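2 proteins. here.
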Amino acid sequence: MNGRRTPDANYNLKGALLNLNLGSDPPIILKSLVEATCFGARKIIDRFIDEGVQINRILAFGGISRKLPYVMQTLCDVIQLPIKVSASNQTCALGSAMFASVAAKIHLDIPNAMNKMGSGFDVTYQPNT
């Protein structure tokens, strides 16, 4: 519902929900919105791949990735790539601390800092074809 998104940014795009009736219950509407969002994400990933960027897996953190397994499994099924969900509740802060530890010469490099400071992953979603 937002035309500003990659890969084909268009600020004039609009969206609508059509053909709703008394049988259109909230779960069906939610399912439609989740699938639309997941296919939008797939379009972004497909563009990266078309431009030569190799993508083997997706790393997710925070919000939806930690609270809504249904959304994450749907995304995994649509993009056909594994998705690992970070165990940390503060992934961005942890990443910043890793970079700071390298800058402060506490750790030799980022991979070393990740190995020593990383919190791992809570769950890995696998594509269900």
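next one coming up
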Amino acid sequence: MQVFDTSSIVYAWDNYPIEQFPPLWACLAKEISQNRICMPEVAVTEVDSVSPDCAQWLADQNVTCLPMTDNILLEALQYKELLEIGMRYGGGVGENDLFIIATAKVHRVQLVSNEAWQPTFPKTKANYKMPSVCALPEVKVACCDFLEFLRRSKAVFV
């Protein structure tokens, strides 16, 4: 199972239109139906606000929404403390991002996120993007972007 972030599914939706890439979307639908792709509740809510058509497609596929749990909340709180985020978030992850990372961690699955990779960690931890947070030794969540997800799948779309 893999957890998709808002950025990854919206990236796919925007860059690989379903009308032009039907085999890709059929493959994703199959992965969703077999619970190999799922999404945290907060990510599904975000998709609905930024791409209603994509959100409708996900709903039509009955994407599994992983609910917020106490374990996920506690894990996200630990990340917030680790990143030294006080009352305000910096230029990096937001609160929902921490919930999404924590969801992947609690479920012990890979995160698919199209948030920008930072070749070097910013000096201010509050400016870490999702892939940088995932790479921290205290977090250790495998993370890749949508294209890497496709490459690893070895699927051929004809």
